[in-house]
Amino acid sequence: MLNVITSKTSSTQLSRSDLVQSILNLNGEPYSLKDYPHMVLPMNINPSEMVLHFSRQCVWEDQELNLSNGKPILTKDLKKGDWINSFDVNTLQTMPAKVADVWSNGIKPVYQVKTRTGREFNVTGNHPIWTAFGWKQTGELIVGDLIGLAKTNHRALTQTKIVEDWQYKIVAYLLAEGGISKGTLSFTTGNKKSADELNKALIEFNPIVKLNKVKTTKYQYYISGAGKGNKHPLKEWLQLIKILGESSTNKHHPEFIWELTKEQIQDYLRIWWDTDGYISIHKNGTYAPGIALISKQLVKGIQELLLKLGIHSTIRQDIPKIYKGTNKIVYILTIEGNESKQIFFNSIRSYKQPTSFYFKSCKSNNLVIDYNFVNKQLHLLSSFIKKPKILIKSKLNKTYNSISNMLSLCDKNELLELRKLIASDIIFDKVKSVKVIGEFETKAIEIEGTHTFQIDNILTSNTSKSVTLAARMVGDAISKGHLKQMYVSPTVDQTKLFSNDRIRPFIETSDFIKKYYLDSRLSQNVFTKEFKNFSKIYLRYALHDADKLRGFSIDKLMFDEVQDLRAGIIDVVEETMSRSHYQNTIYTGTPKRSKGTLANIWHRSTMNEYAIKCGACNHWNILDDKNIGKAGVICSKCGSDKMELERGQWVSSYSLSAQPKVVGFRICALHFAKAPWVIWDRDIIRKMEVRSQQLFFNETLALEYDGGTVPITKAELYAASDSSTRMTGVPTPLDTSYQSVGGIDYGPTNSEVSNTVMVIVQRRPGYYYVPYAKKFLGKEGEFSNIHDEVPKVLAKWKGLFLAADYGMGEASNAEIRKRIGQDKLIAFQHVNSQKERARWNGKLGAFTLNRTESITLIFNALKKGIIRFPSALDMDLFFEDILNIYAEYDEEVGTLRYVNSGPDDFFHALLYAIFASDMHEGQTMLFTSE
């Protein structure tokens, strides 16, 4: 739900927009906001902080989600730090991800979507869902749409056995065929092997607890305890795990079930199929495994456990004759697809399984990819495909097998998107129904890194500014005496451009300003503009260092191109307003990615979007690539060009209950579609055709876009982590059996931009392993502590030597050398202009490394799994350092370069340690083939 934003201006007070339109000229004409009315509100309001730059969505608070281990949880019970299943939109791989934040988003209209496979989710209409054609808002889904569905969550499997086998065996048998009321505990079975297995598990639990045959019946057993008058040990345990006394419809899996290993899950499910499951045979000779229960919680839990094994299943509801007239519904789970059936028969060995079976080719439209999606890919590469007309003209949806056959006709370098899809962790589910079910309390969820998550296994998510800035600054300068404003951009060229092409024309072409506010004694140079009312506009730049901006006393700050500024610089510059009564800050910039200085500010703002109503279907549009028509802006729902840009409304996409202090606006080129200076074909269509998708989304649509800029994804780092190994800081016997090398990258004390990080690296068979890493934060980051701590850590891990940063650390290196020995510290320094990958520099007493080549080598090794880590739970803090590095292509020079949006010290400490280890061994594993 979006909230309309209005501007409150006194009827007797001249607004800023009215003032600047009455006195300023632009390109020889009076400055006017007539053609872009969306700029009136950002021009007029005066919050303490404002960011000019997309939409947050929310979930029904009673929607059931699953933690990454499969445990069900209601959205309202989800909390910061929980791990749920996510997916990477670049690789289409599923993985666990951490919840960064959860907050109330108020009462909103909620859409309920049900799918062919029995999935169901309840979210607001603007919540994005991953489809065969990219993201689509829930409110725009129609019956038949193909939406992304996880076909496996195997990366969430528990690796270390922490649950005893007898625990899950007792639970499985008693939930399936047991009587677990608060009276007598019983069990019913006609299979003696099942009875014997349960009895053995009961004795392992407690020797006094046994399974006893009821003599008067054939299949009935009761479970004896400690005798009459004593507490029953099994009842106490069943109560502890919260399943004692549950009715058949309310039975659920206890929490420890979600911590089972792969082998235990297979065995747990085997018991379910031995008891309540079935394996039916079709007329065509194929077998179909399934299970039917009246507890929805049990069936959904079994579906989650199957998914951890990579087994896809569907759930449907039925009311058999036996339950007619009652409120009981039977939930029927069926294994679907030949691949899933094969995994099932190979891993879940029920006694009901046939001795032989075969898989018939799938010709149904169940597990398919829409033919339009496939044909679009085939059209692009038709010249490479044999018999393209036959393939392209097909109007049938494609099975995964048929696409694999198509790919065999092509060169391995073609049809990359389809190849990625076949190798991915997703399939497509069909939308069965979409409806609004009412207005309910909702929650907003933010996910670290991926910004995506799964709801019932369904995949979901979480510009022309300079003229406006200049007009606003000039308007404030002449309306408020003694006002001091400062404009800050990253580079001197950007500042000169803004001064000469934006500020100066407004001042020099306004007769009003020249007559009443200027004279020859006042400065009007590139970096300072002065006015008769003693107001001043300073124009400055600060890419890496804000020292030149200290000492000013400023009332209002304008930060431009914030995405290229370091957060630490902004903090320093904002101190110039410490004595001002105004203290007003505006941040502007073009979003590049979902992390960085601008993104951090934007995501704590109101994130206002300009909503435009379609005159044909009354659909409210928030403009993006789906609104681009051949000749202008079109409705994303009906395709009509009857878009009333002048009657749009600013709406907040952030929760009002969160009360963000920063006011944010996304302003993109599409908002200026009717401006006289816009030529649609040149400014929109042409750019969309020739620019990369990243550049078009960033520069034209003012939207974040991570694709193509991230050398490695969080999913790939998680894939290189061993969830069964925790980083304790204490070497194990296995650790001490390998030689260790330390690496360290220094950072300033108490810096937000950089930290000192130490890492231990070991060469193991075929890969480098990181058993330990440490960030020196707070008081630990003081160099006196670092000089004491680093030698101790190196000694604990029996490190051969320490590979250290030379750049800012030579003083520290000298101190550490005294403590560990002169020959045990090797220094490295990155350089940009060096042909050799590594070279000894005698003057420095350090090795110099080709920066781009050495960083690329490490990223390639990370992606190939040649570098491995302990559990992601322990490595997450360090992974952020790796993910803070982005690759950019410098078109002027024609080279690749790496930049960082935050601390990257762990990456460089790791790099130094690996290079030092390679030098010691005289060989490297960085070039290991895939």
Automatic annotation (TrEMBL):
Pfam families hit by this protein: GpA_ATPase, Intein_splicing, LAGLIDADG_3
Stored InterPro entries: GpA_ATPase, Hint_dom_N, Hint_dom_sf, Homing_endonucl, INTEIN, Intein_endonuc_central, Intein_N, LAGLIDADG_dom
UniProt xrefs under PROSITE patterns: INTEIN_ENDONUCLEASE, INTEIN_N_TER
MF GO annotations: ATP hydrolysis activity; endonuclease activity
GO biological process per UniProt: intein-mediated protein splicing
Swiss-Prot/TrEMBL keywords: Autocatalytic cleavage, Protein splicing
Keyword Amino-acid biosynthesis found: no
Organism lineage string: Bacteria, Candidatus Dojkabacteria
Gene3D superfamilies the UniProt entry points to: Hedgehog/Intein (Hint) domain, Homing endonucleases, P-loop containing nucleotide triphosphate hydrolases
Record domain DOD-type homing endonuclease: where: 170-311
Keyword Signal annotated: no
Protein name: Phage terminase large subunit family protein
